[in-house]
Amino acid sequence: MKEIRDVLEDAFLLHLTHLPPMKYLLCRSTSLADVTVKTREIGRLLGVESVTLSLNRELFFSRHLVRKLTNQRIEDLTRDKQ
Asked: Contact 15/1 with Cβ under 8 angstroms?
C-alpha cells in the first residue's frame, strides 16, 4: 500500500480479497488525465499484474454506517433547536 499511496496520494483501502488477490481502492482527483496517468504508474509497480479504473461516483455503505450518520445528524439538529 505504501507504494500505491506514493503514486495516488489520497487513497483509501476499501476492500481486500485473497482469492484472487485484489485491492479495491477509493481515490480522489480533480482531473481524469491525472487519474489516467496515476493508473498507468500503478500498473508499473512490482507485483501489480493489472489495474482497472472505475469512474463510478456512487458508493454503497453498510446500513449500520448509514443509521449511525443519520442518528448523529438528528441529534445535532435537535441540539441546535434547543
From this structure: no
Biggest CA-to-CA distance, the chain? 57
Q: Give bridge partners of residue 26 from the DSSP assignment.
A: 12
Residue 61, C-alpha cell as written in the block: 455503505
Write out the three cell numbers for 74: 438528528
Name 15's Cβ contacts closer than 8 Å, sequence gap at least 6.
23, 24
Q: What's the half-sphere exposure (Cβ side, CA atoms, 13 Å) at 81?
A: 6
pTM of the complete model? 0.52
The residues spanned by each domain of the chain are 2-81
| Series of mean pLDDT values for 10-residue runs along the chain (82 residues) | 78 78 78 86 86 70 75 87 74
